[in-house]
Amino acid sequence: MRYVKELKYGLHVIFHPFDGFWDLKREKRGSLAAALTFVIITIMLTTFEKQTTGFLFNTIRLKDVNVVVDILTVTMIYVLWCVANWCLTSLMDGEGKMKDIFIAMGYALIPMILIRLPMVALSLAITAEEGTFYYVLSYVSYIWTGILVFFGTMVTHQYTFKKTALTCILTVVGMGIIMFIGLLFFNVIQQMITFVTTIYKEIRF
């Protein structure tokens, strides 16, 4: 089944990022459906990790776990990065389309899934003195994912190392700008609704 092959191809991508991301774009070895599957699994893993990690390493109280917040957080980071990256690279002669970026960034999340899931079991089996292994794995998951995001951006847009580094920095800045504009927009809408509601009440009474 093609979908299963596209999921399995993720293992090739994370160990051979240059060839992997190149084939994702040029040879269509991956798909948006598979990439979104990895995003969904990451969202589920985020909530699962907060609820089941051993108490020695879990800084989140169960009553503070909010599934909706987890879904929105992971989804917003993923979507904001892809949108900001596309807007920026469109002005910097990037060769990647919006779909290419979404696919590459989805596959870049695979180390988070492969490493952090076993971390939950590890947290239940080790002592505080052995916690170094847990934290090392945590750092590795973030660093590995960051490296894949970097190389995914480089290969997708056919950039040099320096241009990719600059693009990643500017993408983070772009995410902040988009969030600011979004909050400003919703604030204006809220004020308009409040104003209209007040006028309606005044006319009614």
Task: Please give the structural blueprint.
Blueprint: H1 2-15, H2 17-26, H3 32-52, H4 67-91, H5 98-107, H6 110-123, H7 131-157, H8 161-204
Helix pairs in contact: 1-2, 1-3, 2-7, 3-4, 3-5, 3-6, 4-5, 4-8, 5-7, 6-7, 7-8
Our measurement of the CA-to-CA distance between the termini, rounded to an integer number of angstroms, reads 66 Å
Task: Tell me the strand percentage band.
Answer: under 5%
Secondary-structure element order, as H and E? HHHHHHHH
Number of helices: 8
> Total number of β-strand segments?
0
The overall pLDDT average reads: 90
Our count of domains comes out at 1
Main sheet properties: none
Helices and strands: which structural class? mainly alpha
Relative helix content: over 70%
Cα-atom radius of gyration: 21 Å
Categorize the overall geometry. Answer: globular
Q: Ranges with pLDDT <50 over ≥5 residues? A: none
